[in-house]
Amino acid sequence: MDQNTEPAVEFSLNLIGQWPEPMLLLDGERFIDANPAARRLLGYGDRSALLGRTPAELSPAFQPDGEPSAGKVRRLLGRARDGETLRFEWVHLSAGGQEVQVDVTLSPIRQGGRQIVLCAWHEIGGLKQAERAARLANEALARSNRELKHFAEVAAHDLQTPLRTISQFTQLLHREALNQLSEQARQWSTLIMDGSKRMQALVESLLSYSRLEAPLPSLEPVDFRSVFEEAKSNLAGRIRETGAEICASELPWVLGNRTQLVQVLQNLMENGMKYNASPTPRVAITARREGDAWAFSVSDNGIGIAPDHREQVFEMFLRLHTQQEYPGTGIGLAICRRIVERHGGRIWIESTEGGGSAFHFTLVAANVYATGI
Ligand code: ADP
Fold it and tell me: CB within 8 A of 271, min separation 6: which ones?
């Protein structure tokens, strides 16, 4: 105890000394006593190490709300000395430099003509620190996702030019110097051409995936029949090559971005023809009403997808087959999922009765918001 402490104050000091919760006494802006619980909380074994110090000296320079600790403590202690009882959260620094978060109650006490302030702490650090750690982890994850996305965009964009050069010049070499090349060299140049074509396809898919990060243009009523017609016409070459039969039931109007919806349907229709060993690949598009939405199905008579893989195939770059079996980049379904989810819908896979696969996705019906269409 301070040698100058008056007998009346001494009574309070003895009282708080027994108290199990952290308690301190302040005279002016300085601590004149701290009970064992308070000293334990801040990690000061020696009582004299706390006495005579100000709360600001035992706090970080700024509180979480951005206010400097020194100014804030002066203002709050001033109000307590004027007779107010105050309750607020405060961050202290322990003797070891760790942040300790406490719920503080300041109560004015008049002792022997002297205005002192009783300060009671309740530690809330555990919960707050967990919240803070979770927030920091989320922020770090969002930052790292942004950086990765930026990296992918830049890498994909900057890779395009050198790739085009490699591709053009190996094609030239192959054409112009074919006769001078040995059989082995011809095989190598074919491998280089195939490799660079594949890399170009990957880079283009990556770019189209990262472009989907841009804010979605406002959704407008879209006639899904015209989406189907456009996707079918874009796939005309493929349909001819494979002899596929493509059919669609009556298709409704939905709310969406036309270009992106064509991308979704085209990817699914193309996969239906590609992952198909039947002599006549068939792809059928149907729609059924589900509350405020339309649920579309794109079914095929193809090779099917095992139940264990039905979630995975929506992951970026995930493929169930080798390039030799079925060429591809593994981004098509990731793009479909991203577009559908950005439209407020969901996408999933089910088996079809005769084998094959059925991809389902939902989109908001246009007449929910725009009647008369
Ligand atoms: P890609 O076709 O370029 O490989 P996707 O993302 O479109 O990429 O498809 C991912 C994987 O999902 C494919 O490699 C394939 O294994 C499987 N898949 C997609 N559509 C079908 C389908 N209709 N039938 C069977 N398997 C499919």
Answer: 300, 332, 333, 359
